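Dear Dr. L.,

I hope this message finds you well. Following up on our conversation about the binding site, I have prepared a predicted three-dimensional model of the protein together with S-adenosylmethionine. For your records, I am including the exact sequence and ligand specification that went into the calculation, followed by the C-alpha cells. Please feel free to forward this to your student if that is useful.
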Amino acid sequence: MASAVYGAPPPGLALVPEGARQLSPFVVGAEALEDVADGSLDEIVIAAPASAIERRYVLAQALRALKSGGRLVALAPKDKGGLRLRRELAAFGCEAADTARRHWRISAVRRPAARTQLTEAIAAGGPQVPPRLGLWSQPGVFSWDRADPGSTLLQPHIADLVGVGADLGCGVGVLALAALTSPAITALALIDLDRRAIAAARRNVSDARASFAQADLRADAPALGGLDFVIMNPPFHDGGAEDKSLGQAFIRRAAAMLKPGGLLRMVANVGLPYEAVLAERFKDVRLIDQAPGYKALEAHR
Ligand SMILES: C[S@@+](CC[C@H](N)C(=O)[O-])C[C@H]1O[C@@H](n2cnc3c(N)ncnc32)[C@H](O)[C@@H]1O
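The resulting structure of the complex is given below.
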C-alpha cells in the first residue's frame, strides 16, 4: 500500500500507516508532496498547516496525489484551521465529516472520482512572486508576501561585508541579496530548514558566490567553519508556537561557524532574550540600529 504523511500528527489522534513517506517541507531530505505522481497514493495523513492558503494547497495536492477512493485524514487544532477543514474538503468535492478530539478536529474522507477547485487551490498556494515582495516565494514560508520589518532594519547594515559567510535561516533570500551587493564577499552559504524557502532562494539569488542547503541548524548543521561573518534574522517559532530557545540555538551555531574575531550581524524582536547567550559566546556585543519592535545587533566571536 502506498501511504504518506505530511508533518507530525500527534500520536493518538491519527494513525500513520507504517512505512508512510514523509512529505513535509520542514523535514530535511523528505520528498516533496508536489513530486508525488497523480493518483498514486492509497492513503495520506496530514497535520494541516494553520494558514488557510497553505492548508488548502496541501489538501488539494494530496487529493491530486491520491488514487480515486484513496483515504485522506487531515487534522488541525480547532483554533488553527481545524474548524475549517470539513468545509474546505467539501469544496474540493469530498463528502466530509469531522470528529472532535481534545482541541483538535479530524476529517477523514475518500477521494471522490470528481474533484473541484483543485487547480485554483494549487495555483494560489504554489511558488509565485507576490507583488509587494517582488521575489519568488510561497505561502507558508516566513513573511511570504512582504518583507519582514526586522529584515528591512538589518539590510543597510550588511552591505559592507567581506570574505566568506553564511545567512542562517535565509528564507527566500532577502538578507542574502542585500549582503551580496558587497563585491568583497567571496562566498555566502544560504541555509534554511524549509525546503520551499531554499527553492525560492535558489531562484532569487542568482549569484555564483551563493550556495544553498536545507538543514536543521539546531541539529545537523552543515560542516561550515572559519567563517568571516554570519548574518541572520533567527526564527522564534517552531511549528506555530513561540520558542525562544530556537534563536539562542542559532546564536550558538553562528559562534561555532565563525573564526575567532568573526563578525555576527543579526536582527531580532526587542523582547527576545538573546543578550545572555550573545555575551556567553561573543565579545563587543552592541546595538547598531533599532526600529519599533526590532533591534539590530553586532558582535565579534
Ligand atoms: C525570521 S525568518 C528569516 C528569514 C529571512 N532571513 C528573512 O530575513 O526574511 C527565520 C527563518 O529560519 C528558518 N528556520 C526555522 N527553524 C529552523 C531551523 N531549525 N534550522 C534552519 N532554519 C530554520 C525559517 O524557515 C525561516 O525562514
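In brief: Residues 52-65 form the longest helix (14 residues).

With kind regards,
A. P.
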